[in-house]
Amino acid sequence: MTNSLIVKNLSISVPSAKGRVAVVDDVSFEIPAGKKVAMVGESGSGKSLTAYALMRLIKDPVSIDAGDIYLNGREVLSLSNREFRLLRGKQISMIYQDPMSALNPIMRIGQQIIESIQLHSPLSKAAARKTAIELLDSVGIPEPESRMNSYPFEMSGGMLQRVVIAIALSGNPQVLIADEATTALDVTTQDRVLTLIDKLAAERGLSVLLITHDLGVAAQFSDEIMVMYAGKLVENGSVNEIFLKPAHPYTKALLDSRCDYTIDVNSPINSIAGQPPRPDNRPTGCVFSPRCAHVTEQCKTSVPPLIHSQGRLTACFRADELFRVERVN
Amino acid sequence: MSSDLKAIASTTGVSRIFRTGAHEVRALDNISFSLYEGKTLALVGESGSGKTTAARILLGLDTPTSGSVEILGQTLGTLKQEEMRLLRRQIQVVQQDPFSQLNRRHSVHRIIEGPLLAFNIGDKESRKEKIIELLEAVGLEKEHLRRRPHELSGGQCQRVAIARALALNPKIVVLDEAVSALDVSVRAQVLNLLRKLQQERGLTYLFITHDLGVAHYVADEIAVMFRGRIVERGSREDVFKKSKHHYTIGLLASVPLANPQSAKKINQLVQSLPSPAEGDACLYRTRCEVGLNRPDCKSTALALTTGTSTHSWLCHSPQGSL
Amino acid sequence: MGITIFAPIISPYDPNKVGVALPFAGPSFSHLMGSDDLGRDLLSRLLYGGRITVFIAIAATIIALIIGTLWGMVAGVQRGWIDEFLMRTADATMAIPQILFALVCISAVGASVISLPIVVGILLAPTTARMARTAVVVELASDYVVAAIATGVKKSTLIFSEVLPNIAPQLLVQLSINVAAAVMTEASLSFIGLGIQPPNASWGTLMLQGYAKLWNTYWFVLFPALAVTITILAFNAYGERIRILLDARKSSV
């Protein structure tokens, strides 16, 4: 299977009082063609910045210190701005949390979609208009023809996000990145929008990178999961493997700390003590060691590499042994 | 809810209509609920449900267009400004955004001292003692006193907000999406803290949330709101296991669970959700499989159906009646 | 760059602060900037004049700050017809030609180091008022204000203890800009004879005195004019720096 996206040793840093500090630390992963991968993490985990790096939207003072990104086999970090701009929207596209800010408030949405279509293909205005209406229909907007003339403020959040998806897909990219794209939507709307993305991805053979803090969204709408913590990729595997049998202590602790309507209401929720480290205060050794229930001396001094364990990649020295010991349920 | 418990606050037939020019928005339509001492009521709803408006009215930050609100025996509409201010000691609020609900120019010490200063409580030393006591009760330390909000994490700010809310020893705390802006692991910490504080201090909570999981964990009673009406209300068991209203059922089905093997939905709907039709008796009708084809859902006014002493709903053809 | 712009501002102060009594009238022996037709040393006059100009400017700015802030805050807090009334008054005040206003006031009370700051202060107050009002309205919509009301904070405490500290930075920026405007206004008024009268002098007055003999003795006008320009630039630059600092702090939160 070919890989739509390959990321190797990506490191991103920001300035701080103590000099430059890493916010994404040596992250590597692959997204196979047509697969949906969720990148899960809490705030400060570096997941959004990784996404921005893929779109080459990283600007001063944030900088990419190291790494290679291969989009459809071609390394893109070394391209010039002009060269990459031709790829943005055409091979890789991104949608964000707030559709209102992504759209021009004083331009009709039809016009905005047409603009995007014409940017990526040499269609006439009339042909582009027809394509735009089809796109609006395909993203589930009722009466698409009349909606072309609406302004963003006349539409609900869910509808706007659909318009944004339409624009993102107007260039027929192979990769779509959704950065907390449904976080601001009602849960009933979220369900439909994610199902829509699912459907479109299947129809078009899209690879989707779903960035989310919502474990439920990750579990229901992706094939594979990557867990990020404090700038590090700590676990990477299929959705079943990770959710049902997590190997990394952070993944397990994160899953245990969630509050959905299936958990036991009579006991306290299993929270993780403490908080994630600030970028300028990252621990030596394993980045999760200060909060880990299974920490050893080795964890505090050496950085665990991503190793194969139990059918997935985990960055934990004790993955195998903990796995065997803990699987009592 | 069982009548042997004492209702310390209630709204009766509250409606709130917002008028902008010719346009009218009915944010709340004939809402009635009660808060029982030491218990938690969760108001669950999505955007436009009216849950935030209901919270504001209970806090006296907004006045209803009709209906009445009673807190600890006092009717809000009849109070003078100073009387209302004094009543405020009994009902406090913790809001959604951890940072913006704290004054960014004040230290943590000054923030928690605010309520104490407002009512001239104690002197400098005794106030400081109380503040440290509160700080420790919410899991923070003395060294946090001189910090400013932007030097703290979201979870820490929320703890400060909780400490401030407890400063006047209120009977009721309104939690308006108080954990929604927090990371999953921090949310767990704060929910545990809130439960502990409730048990220790006998607090009564009104929990406003759009998150069904949170509502399930915290609530003794849950009221599901849709477009300004309470469409279903009951205990955890009633609402989650024996749901009657189709909106409740739809809502539950939409929540993605962190279990990839949980049953996949049959309806893989992608279409944009239809808006309610003006003049319909039931505002959910346009999205309801059952209601779309029933003339009474369109034209017959809804009356509350009481199932059990705890469970009631607003539906002509609830789940299980076909 | 900021530092070099500041230096000329500081130098007029130094002689005055150190308390060196510079001869004011009468011939003098040091004439770094030349002497005027009565034999007075222009450097000294420039330095003393600077003291007066800057004093008037700062006094005016402070007056404008106090009046303007109260004006704007009352409007922003009360809203309704009070807000309308106060803001229309502000608009009206800004619409009056400055010179005309000054002429009327000064012919009534006379020009002095007391009256000028008040007049200039009144002219500057409306802009501060509008800014203060907008800032207050924005802050009152914040969550921490809701929290304060819910915790029983009284209205007066709310305005002064909670909201004021948050609009202070913006007021500070306005202050800087106002000083520059005040210097300009004072110099202009003095230049047309409505300001400081001889034998006292502010920079404006100096320029007026030198104006008549401009072609032969250009230095009369040159130095005061330069002083005014540099002062205005410096305060504007200072205001900008504060604003940048503010934005940085806000966005880093």
What do these coordinates show?
The complex is a heterotrimer of chains A (329), B (322) and C (253). Chain A is of the alpha/beta class and 329 residues long. Chain A has helices spanning 47-54, 81-87, 99-102, 109-120, 125-138, 144-147, 157-169, 187-204, 215-221, 239-244, 249-256, 297-301, 319-326; strands at residues 3-16, 19-32, 36-40, 63-71, 74-75, 92-95, 175-179, 207-212, 224-229, 232-238, 307-309, 312-314. Chain A has 13 helices and 12 strands. Chain A has an 8-stranded mixed beta sheet, sandwiched between helices. In chain A, strands 2-1-4-5 form a 4-stranded antiparallel beta sheet. The longest helix of chain A has 18 residues, at 187-204. Chain B is of the alpha/beta class. Chain B has helices at 51-58, 81-87, 108-118, 124-137, 154-166, 184-201, 212-218, 236-241, 246-254, 295-299; strands at residues 7-20, 23-36, 40-45, 66-71, 74-75, 91-94, 172-176, 204-209, 221-226, 229-234, 305-306, 312-313. In chain B, the strands form 2 sheets. An 8-stranded mixed beta sheet of chain B has the order 6-7-8-3-9-10-12-11, with helices on both faces. In chain B, strands 2-1-4-5 form a 4-stranded antiparallel beta sheet, with helices on one face. In chain B, β7, α6 (184-201) and β8 form a beta-alpha-beta unit. The relative contact order of chain C is 0.14. Chains in contact: A-B, B-C. At the A-B interface, α7, α8, α9, α10 and α11 of A face α6, α7 and α9 of B.
Global outline of chain C: elongated
Global mean pLDDT of chain C: 75
Structural class assignment of chain C: mainly alpha
> Count of DSSP helices of chain C?
9
> What class do helices, strands and sheet pairing of chain A give?
alpha/beta
In CATH terms, the superfamily of chain C is: MetI-like
- Low-confidence runs of chain A (pLDDT<50, min 5 residues)? none
Q: What multimeric state do the chains show?
A: heterotrimer
- Broad shape of chain A: globular
Helix content of chain C: over 70%
Relative helix content of chain A: 25-40%
Query: Which band does the percent of strand residues of chain C land in?
Result: under 5%
Major beta sheet, strand line-up of chain A: 6-7-8-3-9-10-12-11
Total of domains of chain C: 1
Number of strands of chain C: 0
Largest sheet of chain A: 8 strands, mixed
Biggest pleated sheet of chain C: none
